[in-house]
Amino acid sequence: MDVPRPDLALARKRRRLFLAIVVGLCLAAVVLAVGMMGRALPVVSRSTVVIGRVERGELIREVHGAGALASEDVLWITAETSGRVVESVLKPGAPVTPDSVILRLANPEVELASLDAGTRLRIAEAELVDLEARLEAQSMTLRAESATLESELTEARLQAEAAGRLAREGLTSSIDREIADARRASVTARSQIERERLAVTRRAGAAQRQAKEAEVRQHRALAELRRSQVTGLTVRAKTTGVLQSVSVEPGQQVTPGMPLAVVTNPSRLLARLRVAATEARDVTPGLSVSVDTGTGLVEGAVSRVDPVVKDGTVKVDVALRGELPRGARPDLPVDGTIRIERLAGVLCLGRPTRSQAHSTIALFRIEPSGGRAERVLVQVGRTSVNAVEIKGGLSVGDDVILSDMSRFDSHRRIAVR
Questions:
Q1: Are residues 56 and 166 in the same domain?
Q2: N or C: which end of the chain has fewer CB within 10 A?
Q3: pLDDT at 143
Q4: Any idea which of 66-70, 171-175, 294-298 has the lowest mean pLDDT?
Q5: Are 102 and 322 in contact, with CB atoms under 8 Å apart?
């Protein structure tokens, strides 16, 4: 027979109550821990970020651009006639003079055409000499005939005058006088016709001579063209400088106008920089530029700003002043810093990552205690290569994280250790 045990029931109830309290405390601890974890601040180490301080002072606006040196005197040598490259005489880097031979071409058709044009010119010149001789002989014959008629005219005039005097004195008949007058009239008419014939012959001869001279000039021009084409088969530098490149190889066929080589003057170089289009709006000719060639700094000035934007950049040419460092040559990579203006008495800060002129950006400002940083909105004014103008959101003495903190955009505060 079972005997009721009240003390055992009470013990079980106490044990169950104790387990419920323990479980509740554990759940509360887990919830509290999770809540505290959710409110924990992300930590950033000072050694991994760049920190800048807001100051009031002078800001030198500068724009950076990368590029290369280029020659001011560049001569592209093109093919003057078609042909096949038979010899490459000089290699890139060789110093050249105007008569230096770079390439030799061959074209039998051009050489044959030059010989034919020269032969035709000599034939035309010989024909011109023959024509002038014939015209001179014809003119001499006509002048002789004209002189004979002038003599006959003088004789007929004298005879007519004598017959007239004798007829008036009754020493000859009137018929003899009339015959003398008729002969004088006939010779006068013949003489006039001969003079006109001589003038016409001279005009005709002049026209024939002009036509033949024009033909000779035409053949001479063609012969000179053919000779220049033959001369063009020997490609020369045409200027003093350095052979920068040769774009053809032996055996290659070239056509008129095809680029063959480039000759530059290494003593006259400029820096050709590419500046971001967003920063090139204030770049104008005349601004001072410092160009780093890798072996030294060279001062210069902006000489030209390209009006076209290509691949997000603007091409800026810089005229270099003074002596260039050793090793300076075309296509040498360089970096340039263009000085835009000097601003005095402005709030300035080292340039944050991804900052643009006249924009609003978010930065983490370190609190005075130094242990935490708060996210604030900052108005950026004018910018330089390594600094920006602060228009609002920060004060003198504020320390700001300049590194890229985009991974913390969802956080208002971070811990700084």
A1: no
A2: N
A3: 77
A4: 171-175
A5: no
pLDDT tens digits, one per residue of 199-232: 888 888 888 889 999 999 999 999 999 999 999 9
Q: Which domain holds residue 366?
A: 46-70+268-416
- Would you list the DSSP string of 189-243? HHHHHHHHHHHHHHHHHHHHHHHHHHHHHHHHHHHHHHHHHHHHTEEE--SSEEE
Tokens 């050793």 belong to which residue?
326
The answer to whether the CB of 78 falls within 8 A of the CB of 246 is no
Which of left, alpha, beta for 322 (phi over 0: left; psi -120 to 50: alpha)?
left
Q: Find the helix or strand (DSSP H, E) in which 308 lies.
A: strand 297-310
Please indicate, yes or no, if residue 139 is contained in any of the structural domains. yes
Calculate mean pLDDT across residues 66-78: 90
- The CATH number assigned to the domain holding 385 equals 2.40.30.170
Assess if residue 30 is contained within a domain.
no
List pLDDT tens digits, range 372-413. 999 999 999 988 888 999 999 999 999 999 999 888 888 899
> 276 and 195 in one domain?
no
Answer yes or no: is 409 within a domain.
Answer: yes
Residues 254 and 402 reside in one and the same domain: no
In whole angstroms, give the CA distance from residue 93 to residue 56: 52
| pLDDT attached to residue 193 | 82
Residue 197: how many other CB atoms lie within 10 Å:
13
Residue 12 lies in a domain: no
Looking at the structure, tell me whether residues 321 and 397 fall in a common domain. yes
Residue 222 and residue 242 in one domain: no
Q: How many residues does the chain have?
A: 417
- Cα dihedral 321, 324, 325, 331, rounded to 10, equals 110
Same domain flag for 338 and 256:
no
How many folded domains does the chain comprise?
A: 3
Say if residue 139 is in the same domain as residue 81.
no
Q: What is the dihedral of CA 203, 205, 210, 213, to 10 degrees?
A: -170
- For the segment 10-22, the average pLDDT, to the nearest whole number, is 69
SS3 label, residue 108:
helix
pTM, two decimals, is 0.57
- In eight-state DSSP terms, residue 336 is E
